[in-house]
Automatic annotation (TrEMBL):
Any one GO CC term of the record: cytosolic large ribosomal subunit
Entry keyword annotation includes Ribosomal protein: yes
Example GO biological process: maturation of LSU-rRNA from tricistronic rRNA transcript (SSU-rRNA, 5.8S rRNA, LSU-rRNA)
Source species, domain of life: Eukaryota
Protein name in the entry: Large ribosomal subunit protein uL30-like ferredoxin-like fold domain-containing protein
GO terms, molecular function: RNA binding; structural constituent of ribosome
Length: 179
């Protein structure tokens, strides 16, 4: 990595940490919705590993995350490649009901979340027995949030074809990267 690249990366990290220190979180049990919006080809291995750890391998792949100070620092690393925000209960409910899929059989196979027996079988020990319980546990993160969120396969949002052809219009419609 060249000296100029290291300087700009360090400067970006300082600005990012400063802006996040000014950000006030809604409460200690905040939920973030993270969307992968930029390609990471040719980026540092730290960025690539972080995106992989978030399970955001595809463009417009999305996950729910519990917001903590370490999570914010990690999001700062990948800020140019993701956008994120705080969803409300209605958004969480609609997303899980319309696009929710579960990872089963050693996380290789995915199935749509249409049957409560699958949810009860895999998450019953955490007192999550139906789709409404799953939505509640995601919308209001508790102590078992990581396991329950890990049960969900990353969401894959679609994007209109015309927005990807014109990059300027694309950024206007999707929003700028970062928070």
């Amino acid at each position: 990595m060249s000296n100029t690249t290291q300087h700009s990366t360090a400067q970006h990290s300082h600005i990012c940490l400063f802006s996040f220190s000014l950000l006030s979180l809604p409460d200690k049990h905040s939920l973030a919705f993270v969307v992968h919006i930029e390609r990471i080809n040719g980026m540092s291995s730290l960025v690539q590993r972080t995106i992989a750890r978030f399970c955001l391998s595809k463009i417009f792949g999305d996950v729910f995350m519990k917001v903590t100070p370490p999570t914010i620092k990690t999001l700062c690393i990948v800020e140019p490649y993701v956008t994120w925000g705080f969803p409300n209960l209605k958004s969480v409910q609609e997303l899980i009901l319309k696009r929710g899929q579960a990872k089963v059989k050693n996380k290789v196979e995915t199935i749509p979340l249409t049957d409560n027996t699958v949810i009860e079988k895999h998450l019953g020990k955490f007192h999550v027995i139906c789709l409404e319980d799953l939505i509640h546990e995601i919308a209001f993160p508790g102590k078992n949030f990581q396991v329950i969120a890990g049960f969900l396969h990353p969401f894959q949002l679609s994007i209109a074809d015309h927005t990807t052809k014109n990059r300027v219009g694309f950024i206007k419609e999707v929003g700028s990267p970062g928070y």
